[in-house]
Amino acid sequence: xxxxxxxxxxxxxxxxxxxxxxxxxxxxxxxxxxxxxxxxxxxxxxxxxxxxxxxxxxxxxxxxxxxxxxxxxxxxxxxxxxxxxxxxxxxxxxxxxxxxxxxxxxxxxxxxxxxxxxxxxxxxxxxxxxxxxxxxxxxxxxxx
Amino acid sequence: xxxxxxxxxxxxxxxxxxxxxxxxxxxxxxxxxxxxxxxxxxxxxxxxxxxxxxxxxxxxxxxxxxxxxxxxxxxxxxxxxxxxxxxxxxxxxxxxxxxxxxxxxxxxxxxxxxxxxxxxxxxxxxxxxxxxxxxxxxxxxxxxxxxxxxxxxxxxxxxxxxxxxxxxxxxxxxxxxxxxxxxxxxxxxxxxxxxxxxxxxxxxxxxxx
Lengths: 144, 209
What we know:
The complex is a heterodimer of chains A (144) and B (209).
Chain A: H1 2-21, H2 32-46, H3 55-63, H4 73-76, E1 84-85, E2 92-93, H5 108-123, H6 129-141
Antiparallel strand pairs in A: 1-2
Helix pairs in contact in A: 2-6, 3-6
Chain B: H1 2-38, H2 46-49, E1 59-61, E2 68-70, H3 81-94, H4 108-116, H5 130-143, H6 163-168, H7 174-178
Antiparallel strand pairs in B: 1-2
Helix pairs in contact in B: 3-5, 4-5
């Protein structure tokens, strides 16, 4: 009779340890909205006058160059519900919009990695929370 | 009569021992020869040496010139969690923007330099977190190319700059590289359909028009 109790206590300890250690366990499911909320907090922290993200602003940012050779759309196309193509290697890139590709914006490690790399390639610097939020708002608004 | 048969037995035993040790010495010598031909410093089998389940040697005969290659094996699911994690990280990260070039196509020094400079990877930011670099680099080091012709003059970062690559492709004209279906010498799969699986067999080459 005491076994089930002991097992559940052990289970709780494991769950608690995993939660406290902060390591993303097997599948910490995230959604595009989670990222949007995090960018919003960042944008608000940077500017108290933050008045919300804009899909139109995001689209403009996505399609124009920023003093360098490439724009976001160089690889992801101006309609990111379509497959893109790497501007240098030609390798196919799955659609970036979560409306066309359910895997997009579901893992923070991946999102961080690609914003870091691609903002550096396109702008030569990190993107602000406002810029990321605008782009994600655009990506969530674009229709397949 | 008894003495004679006993003497025969001893002679047989001695002959057997000599045969066995002789064969062992010969085969050890052959191993050394092979190692000299292919050595780039490191030996294979690091994952085995750590007490992981035994795998067969992954050396196999290369092309008809008798060159030997160390091929990266695909994890077969029997144990080896460390190798599997490294393989999967390599496959995922190194094929995001281009095909995952087999580790044997560059020597160890080149892989170390590439993995240490990913934030400017031929003009593109391909940076990885340190944890992922530390997972992938040992795999590249272990299965790196070991032929001296793999090197160019000094440190080579591009596979297409190795002496070996230039020699193998010296009959390919510059117009062929520029064909739309080829694009550039880094596009292995244009002519080597099995490149992503590590198959560069000369007989299977089909150059697109």
